Model the fold of this input.
Amino acid sequence: MRVPGGATCATVALLVLRASGAGAQTVNALPLRDGEATFHIRATIVSDFTGHAAVSRAEYTGPDLAHLRGFVEVRVADMRTGVGLRDRHLRTTMAADSFPLLHFELANVEPGGVHGDTVAAVLVGRLTIHGVARDVRVPGSVLVGPGRAEVWAGFPLDMRDYGIKPPVKMLGTLRVAPDVEVGIHLVFGGTPAHAPAPTAPAH
Done:
């Protein structure tokens, strides 16, 4: 899903590989081309479902990969699952009017191994959902090509950790599991390369 035309698409950092070590990679600026968050949710009775939301705002600065700072935001109102009634239940459960944003504040990056044009990295920061902020470590990878870069990250979370009660409908016969698999895909610059997002524990 591309960022809607009305959304603020901030200029963000493009991570560029250099011959030096992963932590010393320099940072060049390119505009955010695409940004999407996905949320895979398990439920009883009905099939599991996945929600999608465009990244509404993202901004990064820093002299190199190891010293990047910034944030990513997703609007709860932008989350879509393909079923209108389910979307309304989701917004109610997450109290979208009171807590309209999912916000990740990047504190630092722990670069990992370099494999060709891809760098493994752990994004360390604070994730705020439903007004509750928690420290998280988000594993991911960065793929760099001429004039573009992509970032994938994936991690599980328990919605109860953020003060969200998993919804129960139909007199208890329909229950949503509290654990959610979250994925983030960001595209900077050119054409996306389409690679799977990694998943690993957030804590």
The two ends are 28 Å apart (CA to CA). The first strand starts at residue 11 and ends at 15. The chain has one domain: 11-39+49-165+184-189.
